[in-house]
């Protein structure tokens, strides 16, 4: 909060996402991912110049959550503006998207972090990716990934969801 001439003014925080991405092999994971909570995700992208993504996420027993997100930047820390939208807003945007993907996300706790195991389907069948999200960019950079996470692909644009939806899995 800032104080201006006796008034408190709320300074909005710029929303950032801090994450690292890896490409694991399922047979190297030290756990059975099916033992953890899962959500089904459909997402699509607009060719609108700002990278708008819409997503429908379904968690068992929780119904559907619809969001519109714009991410900018590259690498570990990116600006992320995400807002929940109605199903009607989602459907309106969905009718204008240029590319889509579907994935099943498993939420796995690991050493104080949440590992998100994404198993893709449809045109991306067989592609698997892990995302680990962090509270800060520094925390992300200090993270020592265990070998089972597989090769890191955070800085490889071909492994970003938009590129996967548009171009398919990297060869």
Describe the protein's architecture and organization.
With about 170 residues, the protein is mainly β. Helices cover about 10% and strands about 45% of the residues. It has an 8-stranded antiparallel β-barrel with strand order 3-7-6-5-4-8-9-10. β8 (about 100-110) and β9 (about 115-120) form a beta hairpin. The model is unreliable at about 1-10 (pLDDT under 50).
Could you give a short description of this structure?
It is built from three helices and ten strands.
Chart the SSEs and their pairings.
Layout: E1 2-4, E2 7-9, E3 16-22, E4 38-45, E5 52-59, E6 63-72, E7 77-84, H1 87-94, E8 99-110, E9 113-121, E10 128-134, H2 137-142, H3 161-167
Antiparallel strand pairs: 1-2, 3-7, 3-10, 4-5, 4-8, 5-6, 6-7, 8-9, 9-10
Keywords:
single chain; 171 residues; mainly beta; 8-stranded antiparallel beta barrel; two-stranded antiparallel sheet; 3 helices; 44% strand; globular; disordered N terminus
The pLDDT mean sits at: 91
| Span of the ends, CA to CA | 49 Å
Our count of helices gives: 3
Structural class: mainly beta
Task: Tell me how many strands there are.
Answer: 10
Sketch the major β-sheet. Answer: 8 strands, antiparallel, barrel
**Widest sheet: strand ordering:** 3-7-6-5-4-8-9-10
Please tell me what the overall shape is: globular
**Which parts are unreliable, with pLDDT below 50 for 5 consecutive residues or more?**
1-11
How much strand?
Answer: 35-45%
The helix-strand sequence is EEEEEEEHEEEHH
Give the helix proportion (percent range): 10-25%
